[in-house]
Automatic annotation (TrEMBL):
Gene3D superfamilies: N-terminal domain of the delta subunit of the F1F0-ATP synthase
Organism whose genome encodes this protein: Winogradskyella endarachnes
Highest taxon in the source lineage: Bacteria
NCBIfam families xref list: ATP_synt_delta
Protein name from the UniProt record: ATP synthase subunit delta
Gene name linked to the record: atpH
One Pfam family recorded for the sequence: OSCP
Matches recorded under HAMAP family: ATP_synth_delta_bact
Taxonomy of the source species: Bacteria, Pseudomonadati, Bacteroidota, Flavobacteriia, Flavobacteriales
Record-linked InterPro entries: ATP_synth_OSCP/delta_N_sf (IPR026015), ATPase_OSCP/dsu (IPR000711)
Stated family: Belongs to the ATPase delta chain family.
Location of the protein in the cell: Cell membrane; Membrane
Principal location listed in the UniProt entry: membrane
Keyword Nucleotidyltransferase: no
Length: 178
């Protein structure tokens, strides 16, 4: 728990600096890229978490992987290395994006579908999310063919499951109970 509290503190500090420098959106894009890259690369995540690898080696790897980042992002990485808190980098990146969305009064709506969303459907989803929550949202489309059809909408702690697989499972449970 203390790790996530520390990550939130670092994220708040970077957000404050980025907002003062009018570069919060750029830093948010950096943080999203960092979180995505770490999530997709077990080797990078292992290197960041490793207590055996020297800080200087970690810094050179991170500098080459994330070379086109804003100065606030680069300073965050340097600070985490100096304070021996680099394993928090992913948590800081995720926390930063969440805080940035709260600052903008926005949120991410995750829509899981069997096929990619069209622009028309995406706009309908955005309208529905605005109606349900009163806030603007970004749509993140996850494609999962196992749901067969329909969609699963997740916004914050609200989830609406209108997938064909879910409806079939409900029918199956009804038949097995009778």
């Amino acid at each position: 728990m203390s790790g996530s509290r520390a990550a939130i503190r670092y994220a708040k500090a970077v957000l404050s600096i980025a907002t003062d420098q009018k570069s919060a959106e750029i830093v948010n894009n950096d943080m999203k890229r960092i979180a995505k890259t770490i999530a997709e690369s077990d080797d990078l995540n292992g290197m960041i978490q490793s207590p055996v690898i020297k800080s200087s080696d970690k810094k050179s790897v991170l500098t080459s992987v994330f070379k086109d980042t804003n100065i606030a992002t680069t300073n965050l990485i340097d600070t985490l290395i100096a304070n021996k808190r680099l394993p928090l980098l992913n948590d800081v990146a995720i926390s930063f994006s969440q805080l940035y969305d709260q600052l903008r009064d926005s949120q991410v709506a995750t829509v899981t579908t069997a096929i990619a969303l069209t622009d028309e459907l995406k706009s309908k989803v955005l309208a529905k999310v605005k109606e349900l929550t009163g806030k603007e949202a970004e749509v993140e489309n996850i494609i999962d063919e196992s749901i067969l059809g329909g969609f699963i909408l997740r916004v914050g702690d609200i989830q609406y499951n209108a997938s064909i697989a879910n409806k079939l499972n409900k029918l199956k449970r009804e038949f097995t109970l009778n």
